[in-house]
Amino acid sequence: MNIIIxxxxxxxxxxxxxxxxxFEDGDEVEKDAVLADIMIEKASLELTxxxxxxxxxxxxxxxxxxxxxxIATIE
Amino acid sequence: xxxxxxxxxxxxxxxxxxxxEMEADENVFVMGEDIAKLGGVFGTTTGLLDKFGPERVxxxxxxxxxxxxxxxxxxxxxxxPIVELMFVDFFGVCMDAIYNLAAKNCYFSGGNQPIPxxxxxxxxxxxxDAGQHSQCLYGTFAHLPGMKVVIPSNAYDAKGxxxxxxxxxxxxxFMLHKNLQGMGWLGTEKKSxxxxxxxxxxxxxxxxxxxxxxxxxxxxGLGVTVHMALDAANxxxxxxxxxxxxxxxSLVPLDRETIFNSVSKTGRLLVIDDDYISxxxxxxxxxxxxxxxxxxxxxxxxxxxxPDIPIPFTRPMEQFALPNKDKIFNTAKEMMEGK
Amino acid sequence: xxxxxxxxxxxxxxxxxxxxxxxxMEKAYLEGKQPVFNMANGxxxxxxxxxxxxxxxxxxxxxxxNADDAVFATHRPHHIAIAKGVNLKAMTAxxxxxxxxxxxxxxxxxxxxxxxVNFACSGIIAEGMGPAAGVALARKLRNEPGIAVAFIGEGAxxxxxxxxxxxxxxxxxxxxxxxIEDNAWGISVxxxxxxxxxxxxxxxxxxxxxGEYIEGNDPLAIYDAAERAxxxxxSGQGPSLIEIETYRLAGHFMGDTEAYRPEGEKxxxxxxxxxxxxxxxxxxxxxxxxxxxxxxxxxxxxEVDDAFEFAxxxxxxxxxxxxxxxxx
Lengths: 75, 339, 328
Known about the structure:
The complex is a heterotrimer.
Chain A: E1 2-4, E2 16-21, E3 28-29, E4 34-40, E5 43-48, E6 53-57, E7 64-65, E8 70-74
Antiparallel strand pairs in A: 1-8, 2-4, 2-7, 3-6, 4-5, 6-8
Chain B: E1 7-8, H1 10-24, E2 28-32, H2 48-52, E3 57-59, H3 64-76, E4 80-87, H4 95-102, H5 105-108, E5 118-123, H6 138-143, E6 148-150, H7 155-167, E7 172-177, E8 194-195, E9 209-212, E10 217-221, H8 224-238, E11 243-247, E12 250-252, H9 256-266, E13 269-276, H10 281-293, E14 302-306, H11 315-321, H12 325-336
Parallel strand pairs in B: 2-3, 2-4, 4-5, 5-7, 6-7, 10-11, 10-13, 13-14
Antiparallel strand pairs in B: 1-8, 6-12, 9-11
Helix pairs in contact in B: 1-7, 3-4, 8-12, 9-10
Chain C: H1 5-30, H2 55-62, E1 70-73, H3 78-84, H4 88-95, E2 113-114, E3 119-121, H5 129-141, E4 148-153, H6 160-171, E5 176-182, E6 185-186, E7 189-190, H7 191-194, E8 211-214, H8 219-234, E9 240-245, H9 265-271, H10 274-284, H11 290-313
Parallel strand pairs in C: 1-3, 1-4, 4-5, 5-9, 8-9
Antiparallel strand pairs in C: 2-3, 6-7
């Protein structure tokens, strides 16, 4: 399952940055686990896991993300 | 214990710990400046207002003497307040309630009126917040009798120490280093973000942690200096020096035994503290070992700490003054060479 | 009602300078802090508390003050420092942490000291109150002219030092004025949630001194009230308290997302921005025409640009200078 940056995380055209990954690439994660902190200026938003499975990170820390970007996948 | 990995920042671990304690005991409540809606300037109380409501999660006016004094009174009649002093530097306006009341009432009352409160506060600098927003003051609080003083270097310890603090029937000064909180806007030490179990668990007071075993030299740190010591230890390893790194975790009570045992083994002691050097933690650790048995020293013990100056704002001065992994590495090397 | 053209021009010029200064400061502060906002980075590290919107408080009061009148300000000091006549180049260099800064870089934006105009500010809430009363006491003991003004926020009116100092100044009849800039927010906590009375002017009664509340962030109303209070102080009648309704157009500190503000509040405040309002008043009253206003504005742009240029190109101190100036 792709974890996509949606409009309620990053509004139209805005840029956010992946601040902290709480897991490593390849880790097993549970549904609803907090995966990462996304930062827009000083505000911090939590990205939670929509399902359980193995996490593959697509956007690393300090990488910019925009609406529509795939930040990670969970299989 | 859950097996799935779950990493938290110290800030998240603290708010989770407080949440669990508030669920477990209705006498636990939280108050401080900006701790309700904002969840604390350093993220210590995120989510608590929504979960527990404004009666138990209270924003206060800027009146530290009043609300910290109030915490003492509430604790005296059996509540368990967790009160936040936003920056440890603000202790000046309310120290009477802390060191003269919270710390002494148990003693003055012959043990009949213990004060089970937690005073959590942010410490540390290194990011240009200048002399009234960057201090550590470990020595100041550890020196005055009657208060327990703890400082976690990572999220696992943070959550466990907070449990121990809340259930302890004594006043606990719970220090949270700003460089370790995990607030994105402050930059953070990644090594402080670790696996944290979901359930309640305790980390004992008075027990230092050997976070890296070694045989050549003992590096003692607390809070952020633990991580500096670990970084220095990695560098020393490449030079064939095997450093043991101790995380104090608890200043009062202080685990003198673990430190002494380590120095007995290595013969070399280097203490690192980002609080002012004179009359503080580094002097206490060194004296503790020396007075027990100074023959354990293969070379004179050394300390790296903040000079006795008000903390300067400008980056070149601030970075000059702070301990760092290079200072630790260089001093350790000199000690290995018997200087 | 103030009609002196020079004073009116000065009021506008100082507010305009102040606002442009904060806009430049915001830009400088954000350098190096994007995309990841890390407070430690960039040419101006640490915290930054901007005064956008609060300019009328500074100019309305400082218009009546001389160099030997002391002013103590808070962690949000720039507009007051500018109105008091602090050396702008040295002030900016200080905020950039340079050797030619007011304190050689040791203080930064919350610890600006300019003894030549008797200005100081500091970072602990209400802590400027005591020292301000002390300067007032010194003036009185030495029978010399000069009064003291302490600027605080409405949140500080709940701090012990405020109450103690007001009482002390009143019982000793000191030449002292306390100005409360009420911007309605103490970081995320509203005045309503923190203060037991809706307005702090009523608290003056507990000290037996006059108190006034000025609505609407109006520089002319502030000017008039300050004139009354400062006259009282100068004539040996003792202290006064003035609380001013003002607006914090930027966040508490740079980077504050202000999620705690009710929806629409910020937009409403921007529509009440005091500087365009005052500009309009000057035009409509015939005090100044468009050319006159532009002339003032050009001069202010230049003064601020020069100060920032000075600061940016100034040298940093040597790191070891950190050990100096602990003692005299």
